[in-house]
Amino acid sequence: MEELNEMPNDIIFLFLLSACAHGGLVNEGLDIFSKMWTYGLVASIKHYGCLVDLLGHTGRLKEAFDLIKGMHIKPSDVVWEALLGACGVHLDTKKVEQVMEEIGRVDHGMDFGDNSHYVLLSNIYAALER
């Protein structure tokens, strides 16, 4: 698209980020995400969710956590659960506890409704036989 001087929209970026997440293309995904501002686009919660998924599933849990903490918009429960799921894949209990502490903060006002984050936590501990 760049070579054709076409102006991508936020849906195109979402598609590209999703493709990078499914392909494990971290550097490409980060590069694509940073280009959104070049085109005058602002990342939505969906764009951040794709990037958290990409970073998390490739083991870059600290970067994913830092990304969530630095978002210009309030992180959704889906974004936090994407990170928790990645922590489960990598059996990183320290990061899980850090995320759970963050979720529990009053100022986030998250409404997980079904308490699925506790199920993820339980599954991680079960996998570690704790």
3D architecture notes:
With 130 residues, this protein is mainly α. It contains seven helices and no strands. It has helices at residues 10-23, 26-35, 45-57, 61-69, 77-89, 93-104, 116-127. Helix 1 runs parallel beside helix 3 and helix 4 runs antiparallel to helix 5. The protein is elongated. The model has no long low-confidence stretch (mean pLDDT 87).
Mean pLDDT: 87
Categorize the overall geometry: elongated
Which residues sit in consecutive blocks of at least 5 with pLDDT less than 50? none
Helix percentage range: 55-70%
Gap between N and C termini = 50 Å
Estimated share of beta-strand residues: under 5%
Order of helices and strands: HHHHHHH
User: What is the count of β-strands?
Assistant: 0
Task: Please report the number of helical segments.
Answer: 7
Q: Sheet bearing the most strands, described? A: none
Rounded radius of gyration (Å): 16 Å
**Secondary-structure class:** mainly alpha
Give the tags.
about 130 residues, mainly alpha, 7 helices, about 65% helix, elongated
Short recap of the structure:
This protein has 130 residues and is an all-alpha fold. It has helices at residues 10-23, 26-35, 45-57, 61-69, 77-89, 93-104, 116-127.
SSE order and pairing:
Layout: H1 10-23, H2 26-35, H3 45-57, H4 61-69, H5 77-89, H6 93-104, H7 116-127
